[in-house]
């Protein structure tokens, strides 16, 4: 686990596209067809140290290409997971969990109170997965202004075609 490098940003887009294909089987083709974050957006996260990757060691030493990535930002005193994606070829190895745990450690050391995210409630690798990692669904009255803003953007772009939830894990 390490910070992403500028040359790896197109690979993050590839991971996002590949990971998105799983949504097609759930009748969520619109999610699968959604374009990954633009390189300029990814560079913004990377340039601020908020884009991390999970890699395997390369055969000759050094790192192989990224297999998973996480983007995060601070929202209302919490480390907010903007995106975490794992390439399907590397699924079920705990890479997403490891990235989240790294963020939890960093956030705790930085004095943040929690991790937050927004996700689909009925997708097995979304809300049920995060619940297993210690996140809990927030009620409407528990949402911070920042989370309300994020949910508003999600509604505007059509993600509410499927049930969504904000989740929080105390640190």
Structure overview:
The structure is a single chain. With 171 residues, this protein is of the alpha+beta class. It has a single domain, classed as Gcn5-related N-acetyltransferase (GNAT) (Aminopeptidase), CATH 3.40.630.30. Helix content is 37%, strand content 27%. The protein is built from 6 helices and 7 strands. It has helices spanning 9-24, 29-33, 39-47, 95-109, 127-132, 145-156; strands at residues 2-3, 51-57, 63-75, 78-86, 114-120, 136-137, 164-170. A 7-stranded mixed β-sheet has the order 1-2-3-4-5-7-6, sandwiched between helices. The protein is globular. Pfam families: Acetyltransf_1. InterPro entries: Acyl_CoA_acyltransferase, GNAT_dom.
Number of helices: 6
Could you give the count of β-strands? 7
Unreliable parts:
none
User: How many structural domains?
Assistant: 1
- Strand neighbour order, sheet with most strands: 1-2-3-4-5-7-6
Radius of gyration: 16 Å
CATH topology descriptor = Aminopeptidase
Shape descriptor: globular
The largest β sheet comes out as:
7 strands, mixed
Estimated structural class: alpha+beta
| Helix percent band | 25-40%
The assigned CATH architecture is 3-Layer(aba) Sandwich
CATH superfamily: Gcn5-related N-acetyltransferase (GNAT)
Share in β-strands: 25-35%
* String of helices and strands: EHHHEEEHEHEHE
CATH class: Alpha Beta
What is the residue-mean pLDDT, rounded to a whole number?
94
In whole angstroms, the N-to-C terminal distance is 20 Å
Enzyme class: transferase
Keywords: Acyltransferase, Transferase
Domain N-acetyltransferase: 1-160
InterPro entries: Acyl_CoA_acyltransferase (IPR016181), GNAT_dom (IPR000182)
């Amino acid at each position: 686990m390490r910070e992403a490098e500028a040359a790896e940003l197109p690979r993050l887009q590839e991971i996002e596209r590949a990971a998105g294909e799983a949504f097609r089987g759930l009748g969520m083709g619109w999610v699968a067809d959604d374009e990954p974050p633009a390189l300029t957006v990814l560079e913004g996260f990377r340039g601020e140290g908020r884009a991390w990757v999970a890699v395997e060691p390369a055969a000759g030493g050094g790192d192989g290409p990224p297999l998973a990535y996480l983007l995060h930002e601070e929202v209302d005193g919490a480390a907010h997971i903007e995106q975490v994606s794992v390439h399907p070829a590397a699924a079920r190895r705990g890479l997403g969990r490891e990235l989240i745990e790294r963020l939890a450690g960093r956030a705790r050391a930085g004095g943040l109170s929690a991790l937050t995210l927004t996700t689909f409630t009925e997708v097995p690798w979304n809300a049920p997965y995060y619940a297993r990692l210690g996140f809990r669904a927030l009620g409407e009255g528990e949402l911070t202004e920042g989370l309300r803003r994020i949910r508003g953007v999600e509604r505007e772009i059509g993600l509410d075609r499927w049930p969504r939830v904000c989740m929080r894990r105390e640190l």
